[in-house]
Structure formats: C-alpha cells, structure tokens
Amino acid sequence: MAAITLAKLAEKLGAELRGDGSVEIHSIAGMGKAAEGQITFLSDSKYRKQLADCKADAVMLREADVEFFQGNALVVKDPYLSYALVAQLLDTTPAAATEIAVSAFVDPTAQLGDNVAIGHNAVIEAGVTLGNNVQVGAGCFIGKNAVIGDNTKLWANVTIYHNVELGSDCLVQSSTVIGADGFGYANDKGEWVKIPQLGTVRIGNRVEIGSCTTIDRGALDDTIIEDNVIIDNQMQIAHNVQIGYGTAMAGGTIVAGSTKIGKYCIIGGASVLNGHIEIADGVTITGMGMVMRSIEEKGMYSSGIPLQTNREWRKTATRVHRIDDMNKRLKAVEKELAAKDK
C-alpha cells in the first residue's frame, strides 16, 4: 500500500490524534529501529523509557503513556491490536498468484468464481469449486469435488484432497496437506489391514493454517475445524478431531484421533493431546503439555518438568522414581500412627 497520513490512520483505527495529521507513514517498525516515515507502538508501559530515544514519526500508545512522548501519537485502547490493524493496512505481502498461469491444469468441470488466480503447475481436478478472489499458489493440488470459499489464499505447494471443504477468508501456508488419510488400521494376526478413510475435512471461515501442517480426513465422520481458528506450523491434526470456534494452537502440537477441543482454547507449542478425549471451552494448555485425559473445566493447565541443570535434573528424576516407594512407606507410617491413637 502507498503511504497513508496519520489523520487517515487515526480515522481507520478510531484513535485520537496528537500532533501533525499530515505526516505520511509508509511502514511500521519496532520502537528501537523505527525511523522517519514509520510508525511504531508501545504496548507495555514498562518500556516507556525507550520513547525518549524513539525516531519514529508516530507512536501508537495508551492515554497513560502520552506524556512520555513528545512526538506525534495515536492514542488507542490497545496498542498491540492497533499494530495488527496498521500492519494489515501497510502489508506488502505479494499475492500467491495474480492470474491463471498457462502451465496450470484446470479440469473443464471445475467452477471458478470471479477474479480467481492460479499459479504455475497447479492442478485443479474435476468438480472443484473455487469462490471469488481465491488465490491458488504455484504447485498446489486441489482434489476432486473440493470446495474453496471466497477470498481464501493457498500458498505454494498446498495439497487439498478430494471432497475437502475450506471456507471463506482462509489462509493456508506452503506445504500443508489437508484431507490425507487418517491413521486407521485393523490387525489381522500381525498383519495390518488398512481402513479406508471415508469422511472428509470441513474447515470454517477465517481459519489460518501454518506451513507443513497435516489435517487428516475422518474415518467415517468428518474432521471439523470451526470459524476463527488459528493453527501454527508443523502440526498433526488426526482423523475426526473437532476444534471449536476461536481456538489457537501453537507449533509442533499433535492431536490424536477423535479428540474434541472446545471454543476459545489456547494450546501451547509441542503439546500432545491423547485421542478420544474432550477439552472444555476456554482451556489454556501451556507449552509441551501432555494431555492424557479429558479436561472438563476452563482454566490453565501445565505438565512436564521445566529445564534444569543436568545435575538438578538427575536428582529430580531419581526422586520421581522413588515416589512409589515413598508413598508406601508414608502409608505404613500413617497406619502405625492411627493404630497408636486407638
């Protein structure tokens, strides 16, 4: 986007302008590196002292911090949210595709909305429906009868299997695979017998999915991701998982099959969720959480041992191994004391 005046930014943010509204802003930067023509933000008052040396043409901050900055300011309730909105306005990320490339293959039965763009060497199979303004990056594969909603963007080399439904205003980063077979097998006297995965994946609107993430199709019922969910990079979402509205999941997390995650949950990075369990609405699981059972009440949950020196960790591990023995001895002492009290 071209430069925008502070007055216009204030209007779009619903901010109070302090200073010269005619100043033009062309980009956003961190406070320590921001310079002329740039805007920055102060979201945490403990960094107020940095305002004195700030070279930005404007700062987004709260009313309580205005007196500590002598330059142009946009006074807002939430500077971090305002940063996100301004970053969207000034975003220079290119389109995933700008036209239908000559090298792309589009089956004649596919239905394309207005202003669809498809990159080089992409494949659009029979029966696919692409909504208005969809961008399909180079090397993408969209399988038979898949449906992609309006304004959704797929970066390069995304694979969407057959019958998958992806809503409007979604963003899928490169090399993600949606709709591959779930891990379903029966065992016949030591021989694995594959169970065809007959469900699909249904993803709502305004969902963002990071790169190299896999979301498996359901075995019989569907894998379902509701609206406004954000999923980070390198994650495994197994078959028949359900993820509720507004949930955020950080990178490296693994969710086993048929688990149901509620609304507005936050799952920390590298967490592992067992299969066939339910997570209540509003649950936060901190990083590297190991969730073996259902969580029925909202709140914050943690597991694991934080990093220690090797010497401390060895002592901790030794004590953990002795817990069962200590518990038996404690019960014996309690039993003995109870007998004496009688």
UniProtKB/TrEMBL annotation:
InterPro entries: Hexapep, LpxD, Trimer_LpxA-like_sf, UDP_GlcNAc_AcTrfase_non-rep
EC numbers on record: 2.3.1.191
Keyword check for 4Fe-4S: no
Domain UDP-3-O-[3-hydroxymyristoyl] glucosamine N-acyltransferase non-repeat region, chain residue ranges per copy: 23-89
Coiled-coil segments: none
Catalytic activity: a UDP-3-O-[(3R)-3-hydroxyacyl]-alpha-D-glucosamine + a (3R)-hydroxyacyl-[ACP] = a UDP-2-N,3-O-bis[(3R)-3-hydroxyacyl]-alpha-D-glucosamine + holo-[ACP] + H(+)
Active-site residues, as the UniProt record annotates them: H239 (proton acceptor)
Enzyme class: transferase
Domain of life: Bacteria
Keyword tRNA processing belongs to the record: no
Keywords in alphabetical order: Acyltransferase, Lipid A biosynthesis, Lipid biosynthesis, Lipid metabolism, Repeat, Transferase
Pathway, per record: Bacterial outer membrane biogenesis; LPS lipid A biosynthesis
Family membership noted in the UniProt record: Belongs to the transferase hexapeptide repeat family. LpxD subfamily.
Assembly: Homotrimer.
Function: Catalyzes the N-acylation of UDP-3-O-acylglucosamine using 3-hydroxyacyl-ACP as the acyl donor. Is involved in the biosynthesis of lipid A, a phosphorylated glycolipid that anchors the lipopolysaccharide to the outer membrane of the cell.
Protein name per the record: UDP-3-O-acylglucosamine N-acyltransferase
Organism annotation: Photobacterium leiognathi
Organismal lineage: Bacteria, Pseudomonadati, Pseudomonadota, Gammaproteobacteria, Vibrionales
